[in-house]
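Task 17 of the worksheet. Students: predict the tertiary structure of the chain below and write it out as structure tokens. Keep your answer in the requested format; marks are given for formatting as well as content.
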Amino acid sequence: MQIQQLNLGTEEFGVFHQVPEVLGLDRNSIPLDLEQAQLSPDNPFFQHAEGCGFVCEKEGKSSGRVFASLDQNLHQHDGQLVGHVGYFAFAEDTASAEALLRAAEEWLKGKGVTHVHGPVNLNIFSGYRVQMSGFDTSPFPGEPRNPEYYGKLLEEAGYEVLATWSSWDLPPDFVKSSAEYFKKSASQSPLPGLAIRKGDVRQLSEELQRLYRPTMEIFSSNYGFSQISQDEFLTAFIHLQPLMEADLFHILADDSGKIGGFVFAYKNAPTDHTRIIFHTAALLEMWRATPVVYELASPLWETAAATGLPVIGALAKEGKTTYDRSGPPSRTYSVVARAL
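Model answer:
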């Protein structure tokens, strides 16, 4: 067994991108061209971070890969210095996975890192979490997807679950009843001075530029938050444009034009779509736990209900959600951690 360290920008780094295909693995919802853009020295992320790839070869064949990164903009807590491991692609082989993770950890430890979290592909805007349940379900765009054995490999390598998120498969009748509930709740206590408009999907880049600053404020308390540039923010979301529709993208603003939040969903395919994925609901703290929640959510749920399609309530963090009324989640995902 041999571990090869691969530096960004070198010709040799191409081997890293080839590993999923060699192992016959899905790319975890990251198309090759997007992965190559993310793992490029030209990615603005690397203006405030550094990273290194590792590939394992066992008995002359690729058996896995991992990428280690350290982000200087990551919000740290409790005196820890957290580094990340991501872009997982593992064969079902404990020895290879552990050797790769140990190599990545040693590189991070040399940078002063005290705790490792993963999988995090550079930051939470590029992709994170390992799927832990729901393997009998059909994957959706943007879902962290991996073989079932990944959880066991990480556990055997000494990692423990740090946080968990869930997704629900919501039938059309649940979507319809929820839409009626949100509409009724919104009409009972409308708030003056606020307006909700459709997002302009055709000019998504310009809309994302307007959303950048409020989103950074809204997400600042999220797990793994890192202050990223506007260019990084655009890169994180612009690839969803072919799946988005204006009726599934709504923005909240006050009389002065200040954006207070947004919601968006997207189709599972540009054409012949069969599901809608509810991806993000974001509100400034001042509007949370107020009737604004219902006002912002109502048009999205009504639009989805009118299609008659099932909905994926995607990637909700731990705690009470609207989706709970439909029953237990269909899928779960975790970030795991290990102290060095």
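Marker's comment: DSSP finds eight helices and 13 strands in the chain. The domain at 172-309 is CATH 3.40.630.30 (Aminopeptidase).
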